[in-house]
Design a protein that fits this description.
The chain is an alpha+beta fold. Helix content is 44%, strand content 10%. The strands form two sheets. It has a four-stranded antiparallel beta sheet, covered by helices on one side. Strands 5-6-7 form a three-stranded antiparallel beta sheet. Helix 5 packs across helix 8. The relative contact order is 0.07.
Length: 408
């Protein structure tokens, strides 16, 4: 007698609750688990061995679908083919595991600095490392270390190699050490693109051939005429350079200036520590010409926006100022040199004490003990100094070029 098939009905499979196997016939079973779950299985023999093939849970596979799947498996078994193996072979090959993502230059740099924190003399040393790398190697900062090559290293160094040779040399050495650490940790292969000997020495001029020490600077008596010519230009780069001159700030501090750093009412620009070379917050008193230059820009941007941008909305490069010097036909000067012009003027033409002048340049004067006890930043004294400088630069006060007395 033929075995009974199709014993179950759609209603039955939904209402069955007794744990165990419930036959539909010809090897197809509904299995009710102790917890109440229901699933389909197909039992068959192949080469004298009993096998079991799961066909899916009842909540997904209906009675009709289970019978169809059992029929397909039964046909394969009749031909001597294991339906379980056949199903497995039909599955797509698993995707290969993605290669581990290389960390960014910033991630390797931070880990490198963390590892050496105990060996460095103080926190300032670490801050100098981070400031120089994040400022001068900004194009590398977010790149995977495995993608950094010679063109990327040169792009970081060329903008400062002639103007700031000592800084550039330190930056190159720091980049080299970070990339060496990345190679040791298995994050990159090949030669170090920041290596000097036998590599970059063939592209960049040797340090001994670069100007060292003082930056080429315009004599301070020529600064008013230069600023007058600068004000005749409408370019944003001209306004940025004018503000650099008025505040005696470093180029990067002005190029990275954001609206939130300016307090028009207090006439103060607060540069955050992470953007300062010395790693200390610096307050800059703003003269009337500086405020007049900044006010219209502040009304046109959001608090986190840059105040000076290139055509793509990003930060200016130092090279835009070199182009300005070329257009104004002034030779042998640098952006940084205007800080020297200010320092010479303040020393020759005013009676302000050295520590006030140096504070205006964000220089730290004195030993560690003296600095620890000096809590203030002489802001109001520096305001008087910067107002006099602005008057001299703008030629607003004929007496500004004569000896100016410090207010008590």
């Amino acid at each position: 007698m033929a075995r009974a098939i199709n014993r179950l009905s759609a209603r039955t499979v939904q209402t069955l609750s007794e744990p165990g196997r419930h036959a539909d016939g010809d090897g197809l079973y509904l299995v009710v688990d102790e917890g109440g779950g229901k699933r389909w299985v197909y039992l068959f023999r192949l080469a004298g061995k009993r096998r079991e093939m799961g066909l899916g849970p009842l909540r997904i596979v209906s009675l009709a679908q289970a019978r169809e799947r059992a029929s397909e498996a039964r046909a394969l078994a009749a031909r001597g083919i294991d339906p379980v193996d056949a199903r497995q072979a039909a599955l797509p090959s698993p995707e290969p595991a993605p290669a581990p993502k290389a960390p960014t230059f910033a991630e390797v740099a931070e880990a490198f600095m963390d590892d050496r924190a105990s060996k460095w003399r103080n926190a300032k040393h670490r801050q100098q490392w981070r400031n120089t790398l994040s400022t001068y190697a900004a194009n590398l900062w977010t790149m995977p270390v495995s993608d950094i090559g010679t063109p990327e290293v040169l792009a970081a160094l060329r903008t400062i190699w002639r103007e700031k040779p000592e800084t550039a040399s330190r930056v190159r050495g720091r980049i080299e050490r970070i990339l060496d650490a990345a190679k040791v940790e298995g994050h990159r292969e090949g030669e170090n693109p920041a290596r000097w000997r036998g590599h970059l020495e063939h592209t960049l001029p040797k340090a001994t051939k670069l100007s060292r020490g003082h930056h080429a600077a315009l004599p301070y008596r020529d600064v008013p005429a230069f600023v007058a010519a600068l004000r005749a230009r409408v370019a944003d780069s001209a306004r940025a350079l004018e503000l650099i001159i008025l505040t005696a700030a470093r180029s990067g501090e002005v190029r990275g200036m954001r609206a939130s750093e300016i307090d028009l009412e207090a006439a103060v620009w607060t540069v955050p520590a992470e953007r300062m070379k010395g790693g200390r917050l610096h307050r800059v008193p703003l003269s009337r010409p500086a405020l007049a230059l900044l006010a219209p820009r502040l009304s046109a941007v959001g608090p986190n926006d840059l105040l000076f941008t290139n055509t793509k909305g990003g930060m200016f490069s130092d090279m835009v100022f070199d182009a300005l010097f070329n257009r104004t036909k002034v030779e042998d000067i640098t952006t940084h040199g205007f800080r020297s012009s200010f320092r010479d003027w303040a020393g020759d033409e005013t009676d302000f004490p050295r520590e006030v002048i140096e504070a205006a340049l964000a220089h730290l004067v004195g030993d560690d003990v003296e600095l620890a006890y000096r809590r203030g930043d002489a802001l109001e004294k520096r305001r008087q100094l910067m107002d006099l400088w602005a008057s001299f630069v703008a030629a607003e006060n004929g007496a500004a070029s004569r000896k100016a007395s410090r207010s008590q």
